[in-house]
Amino acid sequence: MDAIGEETGETVHLSVTRGDRVVQVAQVDSTxxxxxxxxxxxxxxxxxxxxxxxxxxxxALALPAAPLEQPTEATITTLTGLRRDGARTRDRGWSVTVDxxxxxxxxxxxPVFGVHGDVxxxxxxxxxxxxxxxxxxxxxxxxxAHARALSTLLRGSNHGSAHEKVVVA
Length: 169
Prior knowledge:
alpha+beta; 5-stranded antiparallel β-sheet; Tscrpt_reg_IclR_C; IclR-ED domain-containing protein
């Protein structure tokens, strides 16, 4: 996480599930004056955070019950829309939120796979939309590479690809 923070300058997050919630277990703060807050004690709806969307897309979290909370106009508010977003997330290998939790806040996150090929965590970056919007693909690829390395460490060298188990929500 420190390496990602140093490379990007952005706030880096690691989250897991606890019941039906996304719980942030570690954070590396942004090097910029304008960054994001400490999210370790903040409970946000999974469907409008990049970390939560990873956990939803790979089935580590069940889809929430409708109706979905709508913090901003950009928030996905239908289960059909959330399923479609989950398919895009799995196809590209990372999730994106732009102004969905809060106007001006963007997040990108990638899945961390465990020993059995299931998603056990999400590794993400968040920051101001104005600074991240032109870098989403770059950040997604960077996070995916770091998440794959972490997955490999968790799985050991005797396991195959980290993308073996795909869950369709």
